[in-house]
Amino acid sequence: MAKADQEARALATAARPAPAPASLDEAQELLAQQARAIDRLHFLVEASKMVNSTLDLPELLSIILNIATRNTNADRGTLFLVDHANKQLWSVIAHGLEEKEIRLPMGRGIAGTVAEAGEVLNLADAYTDTRFDRDFDRQFDYRTRSLLCLPIKDRDEKVVGVLELLNKRDGPFTGDDIEFLESLSVHFAIALENARLHRESLERQRMERELTLARGIQEGLLPDAPPHLDGLDIAVRHQSSLQVGGDYYDFLLLDPRTMLFVVADVEGKGVASALMMSNLQAMLRALVMHVHALEGIAFLLNEHILEGARSRKFMTMFLGLVDLAGRGLHYINAGHIRPAVIRREGEPAWLSEGGLPIGLFPDSRYERGFLRLESGDVILTCTDGIVEADNAVGDQFGSERMVEVAHTRRQGAAQEIVEAVFAEVADFARGGQHSDDKVMMAIKVR
Question: Which of 202, 230, 250 is the last residue of a domain?
Answer without folding.
Answer: 202
